[in-house]
Amino acid sequence: MQIVFMNTFEKSAGDAGIESARLFIGEDQGRWSVEWREDAEEGERMAVWFEGTSWEEMMIAFRLGIARMMGAGFMPIIDGMLESPRAGNGGYLTMLQCYGELHADQELFQSLREWRRKAAGAEKKSAYLVATNRMLWMISAFVPQSDEELRQIPGWGQVKHAAYGADVLAVTAGASRTTTFPLDWVAERLDPDVFATWQCKQKENKYKLLMDHQQEKKQILGVLQQGGQLSQLEEQLSLSRRELLIRIEGLEAEGYDVEPFVERELSEVPESERQMIWEAMSSMGDRYLKPVLEQVYGQQEEGKSGRQVEQLYERLRLMRIRYRRQAGSKAV
What we know:
Layout: E1 2-12, E2 18-28, E3 31-38, E4 45-52, H1 55-71, E5 75-76, H2 88-102, H3 106-123, H4 127-130, H5 133-142, H6 147-150, H7 158-172, H8 186-189, H9 192-225, H10 230-236, H11 241-254, H12 259-265, H13 271-284, H14 289-297, H15 306-331
Antiparallel strand pairs: 1-2, 1-5, 2-3, 3-4
Helix pairs in contact: 1-9, 2-5, 3-5, 3-7, 11-15, 13-14, 13-15, 14-15
């Protein structure tokens, strides 16, 4: 095996001195491996983080492992393997997010969640589109009680303020707080080691999510290559049919041939209906599906259940995969 990368990590062990470890990326005839070797009293301990032929998957496993070990206190001798903005406005905003998560008032946070649930239900949209958990954590930690203060919460822009500002301030109005605005005191009060550990945990979560997506991608491709259908994917993965079709659209954009799957799913859709969808996308574009749905199905949409409408959207998404593939081949 050829070693193509190596770095040394060190961790303070208090009175016992310094613990050390080494991280390797190796390659052998197109097969990659990532190994962590840690010194111990009984000898070297080795852990294999990855073995396989996928460069993309190898790099995700590499970064996920680094984030975990840095979170455990191991610092690389050669730094910079994980992006970590600690200065400037980006670093400041990240500090606010960290402080908010670590110091959220749980009672106020639950009240804000209840407000968000009702607002999302009234508008028939996902809760995170109203406000993310991270935003609610910051609001419950800093407790803004005026328009000016609320607008200092990262991500709370003019549009959100116009839609929800009064409601949120009504929730925070009765809450007590021990901090003040503006929030420039956070950088001094936040413990650097705590902040560094929190950042590593965020990166670990990020790369774990990427790894999960990579594994799901392999499962989806395996089912498609075996002639499987959407119902089979739905059984095997804990993903909605809508999310699965979005993933398959992404695979098509990456260059994978998903046309056999598209044809299997559209086999019971009349050719005349396919043609109407195609013509609608040609005249209206394929970015937004609701206008296409209204043009193709018109009054048929009225009176249908949510599941029936979603089935119509499934047809549109499948046709969009085919439409974009053929439009892309013509462009070439």
